[in-house]
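#lab-general

N.A. 3:47 PM
ok so I finally got the sequence cleaned up, no stray characters, all 275 residues accounted for. can someone with queue access submit it? mine expired

B.Y. 3:52 PM
send it over

N.A. 3:53 PM
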Amino acid sequence: MPATCGFRMENTHYVARLLHDERRRLGTPKGSRVLTPFWQAVLVLRWFRGERDIPKLGRDHRVSRATAYRYTAEGIDVLAAQAPDLQEALDRAQADDLPYVILDGTLIPADRCAEQTISVKGEPIDAWYSGKAHHHAGNLQALSAPDGLPLWISEVEPGSVHDLTAARAHVLGALYAAAAAGLPTLADSGYDGAGIGIHTPIKQPDDNQILSPDNRTYNRLLRALRCLGERGFALLKGRWRILQHITLSPSAIGDIARAALVLTHFEHGYLPAIR
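B.Y. 4:20 PM
back already:
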């Protein structure tokens, strides 16, 4: 059997416990699976750490290709199910007296997915192709704490969707309510016009005019406050390297990212006491 390298043993036991509970929930007879929950957890964590060749992982663990894919998908599902929903994340942020949260978006590279949509100009386009990044990807929105710990991740949108459009679909409504309750949101210029309570940089005036000193100071302060929080996606992608390129269906990116979020929360001691 392969060694449990690249991640802590505590991670393995945590994922194994979730898998064990899932088998009990499904009524899986003891001893009927090729791998124990522990070794299935090892397979799943190796995949999250960037060993994206699932057939090879199956050979390493002496299971078939189909079983390796099934075990990986099950691991993603049980982890993603532990992720906080948007309201839970905001409620905890307020309970922890966070002064603000940071909204950010990222593109997760993915293999080509043949799905057509209509652009804002009325032309047919490849839905998952990002003109901004010049590759196929999924768009994720996330909220982070001021120290950069990611708190919540949205469902995936195709790469052709703009950050502001994705945010309107998944998060802005809740952020308005949070701002009214005293929890504002900081964001970059891509969210300009997002609405009340979403603080973005003040744009440079037209006709080459210079921003006033007050506005320049505001932008510098906003940038200084956002800078640590914007490491949230870097933290996820650096630790769980599978997020650097997804070879499964792009529609699974949201679940994969939320599963990685749960693993990150576990490592940082941020999981709720009781789930």
